[in-house]
Amino acid sequence: MSHHIYKTEAIVLSGFNVGESNRFLHIFTKELGLVGASAQGIRELKSKLKYSLQDFSYSKVDLVKGKDVWRIVNADQIYSFDELVKNESKKKVFLNIISLIKRLLVGQLSNEQMWQEVYSGFCFLKNTNLTKKELQFFEVIMVLKILNHLGYWGESKELDFFVENKIWNTETLNKMNEFYKDTIRKINNALAQSHL
């Protein structure tokens, strides 16, 4: 019996070892949303998947839906965000966003626009030198965008600019300065109301 192969772009958020050579991965995919998938034999020396499915890799993956779990049958790495966890000033922000995605996307289906914004945000974070304040503003704006895409954010005229803006740059980040404390309060309220 043949299985349909789903081809998608994905960011490997995290994973844990299973058995002697397998690994279970949480991958944030463009077409399928957040997926838990098994990568069989990935920890073997001869595994072709090993280097394409490291944590924080951005890869093209081929998935097959099994009876109980997705399986990754092929992968090719395009890019890696692992430098973000090697940079102490960016690491906390990056891991906080990954944690939020894993927390809020439970049972969620595809949201390609959100995926694109997260991916472009991670690219900006990786390639741009940011001050401590700018990193705080980046995190808040990214959280706003994620909450908005998932329907947990209401209208807020003073913050619509940040939610709707598609271009990441330091000018945009620094515009958050006057709204920062109020935005944190509103984000915490939105997260509390999500019950997630």
- List the uncertain runs: none
Report strand order across the widest sheet: 1-2-3-5-4
- Gyration radius over CA: 18 Å
How many runs of DSSP E, i.e. beta strands? Answer: 5
Count the domains.
2
What is the rounded distance between the termini? 39 Å
Q: Total helix count?
A: 7
Order of helices and strands: EEEEEHHHHHHH
Largest sheet, in brief, is: 5 strands, mixed, barrel
Describe the structure.
The protein is of the alpha+beta class and 196 residues long. It folds into two domains: 5-80, OB fold (Dihydrolipoamide Acetyltransferase, E2P); 83-194, no CATH class. Helices cover 41% and strands 25% of the residues. The chain has seven helices and five strands; from the N terminus they run βββββααααααα. The protein has helices spanning 83-86, 88-104, 112-127, 132-149, 160-164, 170-175, 180-194; strands spanning 5-18, 22-29, 33-39, 57-65, 70-80. The chain has a five-stranded mixed β-barrel with strand order 1-2-3-5-4. The model has no long low-confidence stretch (mean pLDDT 91).
Helices and strands in order:
Elements: E1 5-18, E2 22-29, E3 33-39, E4 57-65, E5 70-80, H1 83-86, H2 88-104, H3 112-127, H4 132-149, H5 160-164, H6 170-175, H7 180-194
Parallel strand pairs: 3-5
Antiparallel strand pairs: 1-2, 1-4, 2-3, 4-5
Helix pairs in contact: 2-4, 3-4, 4-7
